[in-house]
Amino acid sequence: MASSSSLLQPSSSPPGSNWVRTIGCVSTGRADAGIYRPLLAALAAEKGWRVLCFAGGTHLDQGFGRTIQGFGGLARVEVMPVQHFVSGDGAVAVSATAGKATEQFSLAFEKSKPDLVFVLGDRTEMLAATLAAVIHRIPVAHLHGGDTTEGAYDNQCRDAITKLSHLHFPALREHGERIKAMGEEPWRVLAVGALALDAIREFMPKSVDQLSKALRIAFGQAVVVVAYYPETLSELSAEQQIEEVLAAVEPLDVDILLIGPNADVGHEAVREALAALASNRPGTVLAPALSQTRFWNVLTHAAVLVGNSSAGIIEAASFGLPVVNVGDRQKGRVHARNVLDVPTQRDAIAAAVQQVLDPDFREGLAGVVNPYGDGCAAEQIVAALLKLPDRPTLLRKRCSQQ
Q1: Distance CA 233, CA 149 (A)
Q2: Residue 36 lies in a domain
Q3: What was the pLDDT predicted at 32?
Q4: Residue 2 has what pLDDT?
Q5: Do residues 179 and 160 touch, judged by C-beta distance below 8 A?
């Protein structure tokens, strides 16, 4: 993706990026961990920068796969655990996690004193970390702002993070225009594409036999993958939502791989329903969490992805994988023609799955173009950081009069 015309440099200020010495990236779970890897590697390759990964949220929780281990092998990147996750899936527990996150990320920032912090996306814990950075007067760079996901309060969290942040690296130009419409100064905004595609560009899939052995499921034949997270603004309860999804796929004459949810309100109900199906239906496997590379191997060899994961919107097109996107959690997002949008109704979901399992549908996806870029986001971000204005200019925001 070619960069937009903004150069992250106010016209009246000369470059002053020599003040940047320590750069941190805030990660709060598996959903953003893999996305960060290309950026962490690109930052670490630049001489003179100390690179930190603040790993909080569910990264340290065994029930979510203790995914902090997924940051191994990143040369010159220091991983700093930030413990703040509060067990439970109700509004009080999720709020407590966010409140504790503000305190614990603040302590981590006070100890490590980063000059600049990256945050990604729209989760409540990410909003908490952003607030802590602002209070510490640390400039914040936001990845994947300006997007829209109408079915979850993540949408409001993303917009709040945008208004707290000082730099914006959205995936698409239209996302950048939305950020500017929110009053952010144009020089602070640079559309770079989706970071996840940087890593996909270098990805080499394992064989069907290797993947089948690792996950105990026969990827040599059609496998339906289900990745569903509670839709937090739905009138349906989390139990009702997942019941509709599983009722649509359970009768299928295929193997099913179920992927555990993130720590949203209602996630325990979803997890319990997935575990029950895996226990009672032959040919069904529940994976509480998958590493990024294993997940991409799954996308390479699966027949269809069913649910409402952002991976179905952003990454799946790069694998030519059909996606049945359920409900409104991802409503409003740009996607390629491999995605079919359906309501959270078992009959609609089942019909869409049958449609995409038809070989003609998969063949029709040949040459599908992923709208989220060309896999060169990290290098554009690093280039922009080398041209930053001085710290006071970056910190002092004003509303643009577009």
Answers
A1: 11
A2: yes
A3: 83
A4: 43
A5: no
Domain that holds residue 254: 207-363
Dist CA 298 CA 338 (whole Å): 16
How far apart, in whole angstroms, are the C-alpha atoms of residue 42 and residue 382? 7
- Verify that 84 and 227 share a domain, yes or no: no
Cα–Cα separations (whole angstroms), residue 47 to 20, 22, 42, 80, 136? 12, 11, 10, 21, 26
What does the DSSP 8-state code read for residue 368? P
Residue 24: φ, ψ to 5°: -110, 150
Q: To which H or E segment does residue 277 belong? A: helix 267-280
Mean pLDDT of the chain: 91
DSSP letter string over 51-82? EEEEE-GGGG-GGGT-GGGGGTT-TTEEEEE-
The enclosing domain of 144 has a CATH number of: 3.40.50.2000
| 119 neighbors 26 (Cβ within 8 angstroms) | yes
DSSP 232: T
pLDDT at 4 over 50: no
DSSP code, position 35: H
CB 303 within 8 A of CB 323: no
100 shares its domain with 158: yes
Nearest to 400 by CA among 118, 163, 116: 163
Does 157 lie in the same domain as 92?
yes
Cα distances (Å, whole numbers) of residue 213 to 209, 217, 284, 339: 6, 7, 14, 29
Q: Is the pTM of this model over 0.70?
A: yes
Pairing verdict, β 339-342 and 284-287: unpaired
In a domain, 202, yes or no: no
DSSP for 184-215, written as a single string: --GGGB-----THHHHHHH--PPPHHHHHHHH
Residue 177 φ/ψ, nearest 5 degrees: -65, -35
Alpha-carbon torsion angle 374, 148, 3, 181, nearest 10: 170
